[in-house]
Amino acid sequence: MQNGSYTYKLFHRSDFSAFWALFTDNLINLMVLAGVCQFVFQMPAEIVYGRIVPGAAIAILAGIAVYVGLAKRAAQKHGRDVTALPYGISTPVMFVYLFGVIGPIYWSTNDPVLAWQVGIGAGFMGGIVAAFGAVIGPWLKRVTPRAGMLGTLCGIALVFIGTVPLATVFENPFIGFASMVIILWGLVGRFRLPYNIPAGLLALIVGTVVAFAIGEARISFDGVGFYPPLPYFGDLIAGIQHLFANPELFLVLVPVQIYNFIETMNNVESAEAAGDHYPVATCQITDGIGTMVGALFGSPFPTTAYIGHPAYKRMGAHAGYIIGVGIVIPLAAFFGLLAFLTNLIPVAAAAPVLVFVALSLITNTAHSIKTDHMAAVTIAMMPHVSSFLITKWGSLMGALGAVGVASLPQLGDPELTAALLQQGAHFEGHLALSQGAILTGLIWGAIVASVIDGNFRNAAGFALAATIMSSLGVIHGASLHWPELSGVSGGYLIAAAFLYIYPLFHKDGELNNENVVIDEAAAPPAE
C-alpha cells in the first residue's frame, strides 16, 4: 500500500557499513580476474587494466543505476524502506568464463588477445541468453518452492563464498584473524565498534596494518594511470565470429548462462524472503543487458544481482551502498587504482567479509522458510559440495603436474577412478552431481519441498524436467548433446512416474501429511 507521506531516502547511515561489505566483494572479484588474466593467460596489462577492468566497471555502473531505480519504486509502492539489490560480477560464472571459455582458447592458441576477444564475444552472446530468462523466470518463480531456490544459493554460499575465504583466513592467520574478529563482533554479533566505525572498513584497515607490520603489503603505483572506457566493436565481432566457427564453446556458454539467470531469480527470491519485493523479469533483463554492455566495453564477465541481499538488509542499508560502489569502482577502474589496491590490501583482510555474507544468507534462509523445508534446503546444498570436491581434485592434479610428477593420469581415467573408489572417494557420483550443480540443487530442493507439502504433481514435474535436462547434458553431463536415456535420466523418469501415478491409487486424505505446516514462515521484519 502506498503511503502518500512517505519519502524514501537513498542514503542512510547504515549504507556506510554495507558499502564496505559490497565494495570488498566486488574488489575481490576484480582482483582475482585481473590476476588470472594477467599471470595465467599472459594478457598484457593494457588489456587487463585498460579494457577488461574498465568494461566491468561500466557494466556495474549501468546495472546499479537500474537497481537504484527499482529500489525507489519498490519503496514508494510499499510505503516503507527497502534495501536495493546488490549487484556485481557473478563469482561462480566468472570462474567458468575464465577456465571454460578464455582458458581453452589461450591454451590452444597461445594468443591472449584472441582469448580476450572470444571472451567478450561469449559475454555478449551470454547476455542475450541471460536476458531471455525473463520469458520463463516469473513462471519458474511461481512453481518453484522457496526452499529449492534459496537452498541452492546456500550451497554456493557454504562452499565458495564461505569455506574458501575462511581457508584463506587460516592460510594467513595473523592478518585473517585480526579482520575476522572485527567482522564477528560488528556484523555477526552486531555490537558497536569505537566511534561507530563500520566493521567492514575497520577490518580492512586493521588487516592492512597487520600486513604492513609483517611485510605482506606494499605501496606500489605500478599500473596507475588513466584508462577511459571505450567500445570495442571490432574485437567483439571477431570474438563472436570465432564462437560461431567453434560452436562447441556454446556447450559451455549456454548452460552457464542458464545458471546465471536462475541465480538472479534465486537472489530476487532471497530479497523477497527478507521482505523486499522486486520484479524478477526486470532484474533478469537488467543483468543480461548489463553483461552485454560490459562485453562491448571490454569485459567478458557476466554481471548479476548479487547473492547476499539479506546481509545488507540486516545492516539496515537503503540504496546508498550500491550508489557508493557504482561511484568508487568505476573511479578505481578508470584511474588504474585496482592495481594499487591489489598490492595494498591483502586478500586475507577482505575474506572475512565474504564469510559474513555466507553466514547471513544461510541464517536468513533458515528464518524465511517453514521448519519442515530445511530438509529441502539441505539436499539442495549437497550438489555444491560435490562441485567443490571436483574443482579441488582438478586443482590437485594440476598442481601435481606443475611440480613435475611424471605419467600423471587425468581425472576420469578408469584406473584412477577405481582407485579413488577403493579409497572411499566416489569420483563418478560427485562428478555427476557437480555438473550443473545450481540446477541440480534447485530441482532436488523443489522435489523434496513439494513432497513434504503433498504437492506430488509439482514434484513429478520437476523430476520430469530433470529427465529432459539430464538427457540433453544440461545437468549431469560434460556438454550438451542429442537426447539419450542414461542411467541418471532413466532414474529421474522413474521418479517422475512414481510421484505422478502412485498418489492416484489412494483416496483423498490418505496422503495427507499431518505434521506439515501449511503456511510459509513469515519473513523477518525489516529492521
In words, what does this structure look like?
- This protein is mainly alpha-helical and 527 residues long.
- 70% of the residues lie in helices and 1% in strands.
- The chain contains 20 helices and two strands.
- A two-stranded antiparallel ribbon has the order 1-2.
- α1 runs parallel beside α3 (91-109) and α1 (14-40) packs across α14.
- The two termini are 19 Å apart.
- The relative contact order is 0.16.
- The model is unreliable at 518-527 (pLDDT under 50).
Summarize the structure.
The chain is mainly alpha-helical and 527 residues long.
List the SSEs and their pairings:
Layout: H1 14-40, H2 45-78, E1 87-89, H3 91-109, H4 112-143, H5 146-171, H6 173-188, H7 199-213, H8 233-245, H9 250-273, H10 280-296, E2 303-305, H11 309-315, H12 320-334, H13 337-344, H14 347-368, H15 374-402, H16 414-422, H17 427-434, H18 437-452, H19 456-472, H20 487-501
Antiparallel strand pairs: 1-2
Measured distance between first and last alpha carbons: 19 Å
Based on DSSP secondary structure assignment, what is the total number of beta strands? 2
Largest sheet entry: 2 strands, antiparallel
- Low-confidence parts: 518-527
Shape designation: globular
- Which structural class matches the secondary elements? mainly alpha
Number of helices, counting only DSSP H or I runs of 4 residues or more: 20
Helix content: over 70%
